[in-house]
Amino acid sequence: MPTSDTETGDAYQFEFVALDGDKLPLAAWLGRPVLVVNTASFCGYTPQYRELQALWRRYSERGVVVLGVPSNDFGEQEPGNAAEIRKFCDTNYQVDFPLTEKNRVIGAAAHPFYRWVAATLGEAGAPRWNFHKYLIGPDGQLAGAWPAQVRPTDAAITGEIDAMLVKP
Question: Residue 73: which residues within 8 A CB-CB, separation 6 or more?
């Protein structure tokens, strides 16, 4: 459950709802790196789903989680409901990493996780477009943030993940 004070604590205090309606607490991945990405089905960056899936396949057995957070905040590029989002992701990209229900990721109505990100990094750290990436370290703190232009398999992201995985 999110705390009332999103300016403190770590990412493990937050909970999403999965695309299928189940609870999806970040605390379920305590001690594991988690890459959180706001996604959209009809964006120029949508093909990044393919690389997110590749990242998931490459690292999931080593404990890394990729979490997609569909959002309609930018250009109304995620208009679908949960079933439509699931079908799109399955059909076009064979996505099997966890997806949340559609969430707001910017502004006062943003999901508490994204308000925490903005409080932690400053407003400039809030997502500016679809496919903004945040890496949560095993300690629950933000370990990295990359805009949409940085591909999921970019060395900047995989290097951070690799460094986390070699630590005892």
Answer: 38, 104, 105, 106, 107, 127
Fold classified for 29-166:
Glutaredoxin (3.40.30)
Q: Which of 98, 45, 106 is nearest to 72 (CA)?
A: 106
Q: What is the pTM of this model?
A: 0.94
34, 36, 43, 64: the catalytic one is: 43
What span, in angstroms and rounded, lies between the C-alpha atoms of 117 and 45?
22
Residue 43 among the catalytic residues: yes
Q: Which two tokens stand for residue 145?
A: 């943030």
Distance CA 137, CA 90 (A): 28
Asked if 101 and 86 count as a contact pair (C-beta separation under 8 A), the reply is: no
Q: What is the pLDDT of residues 122-162, one digit of tens each?
A: 988 999 999 999 999 999 999 999 999 999 999 999 999 99
Residue 89 reports pLDDT greater than 60: yes
